[in-house]
Specification:
Helices cover 65% and strands 2% of the residues. The protein is an all-alpha fold and 172 residues long. The chain folds into 3 domains: 46 residues, no CATH class; 31 residues; 71 residues, no CATH class. The protein has a two-stranded antiparallel ribbon. The longest helix has 34 residues. The termini are far apart.
């Protein structure tokens, strides 16, 4: 009847010393009066009274297999996909390849409005200059020029602002 210490028993069972102490504290294994463990009895009691299948780095009982949980596998796959996408975004952000889509669309829309307003406000100024230069009536010329500018702006009208390259490629 060989006697072993906590450290020796942990090494034989391929678990931590804390696991051996916890097994002793819960009454799954018992010490001999000498303060050590009987090797065969402690190993038998420890593996027989084990609550769960051994985790990574430990050995399972002979013939024992860890049950496969399909829900856990799906969750793990989803999590891995999420992590991969998160890392891709972080890398792209570090490279400077990502654009704040909403901010870019707002800036482009603002530029379009400013350009359109510049054209619309140009009409009265041109009408004044034409009245002086060519001797035409400013009000009539302004109405005529305003109609022509608005027709041209209608041709340039953007229905929906988009930065999606695939949509643009499909349209062309």
């Amino acid at each position: 009847m060989p006697e072993v210490s906590v450290a020796q028993l942990a090494a034989l069972l391929k678990v931590t010393e804390k696991a051996v102490r916890n097994a002793e504290a819960t009454g799954r294994i018992a010490r001999l009066p000498s303060g050590k463990f009987d090797r065969a009895t402690a190993m038998r009691d420890f593996t027989a009274n084990r609550k769960s299948v051994p985790g990574p780095g430990r050995t399972a009982k002979a013939g024992e297999r860890r049950p496969v949980n399909p829900e856990r596998i799906r969750n793990q796959e989803s999590y891995e996909k999420f992590r991969a996408e998160k890392m891709r975004v972080i890398v792209e952000r570090l490279k400077g390849n990502l654009v704040d889509r909403g901010g870019a669309e707002r800036r482009i829309a603002d530029l379009i409005v400013r350009e359109r307003n510049a054209w619309v406000l140009l009409v009265p100024e041109l009408a004044k200059e034409a009245a002086i230069e060519f001797g035409v009536e400013a009000a009539k010329f302004e109405i005529w020029l305003d109609g022509k500018v608005r027709e041209h702006l209608a041709l340039l009208k953007v229905e929906r602002l988009t930065l999606d390259l695939e949509t643009k490629l499909k349209a062309s």
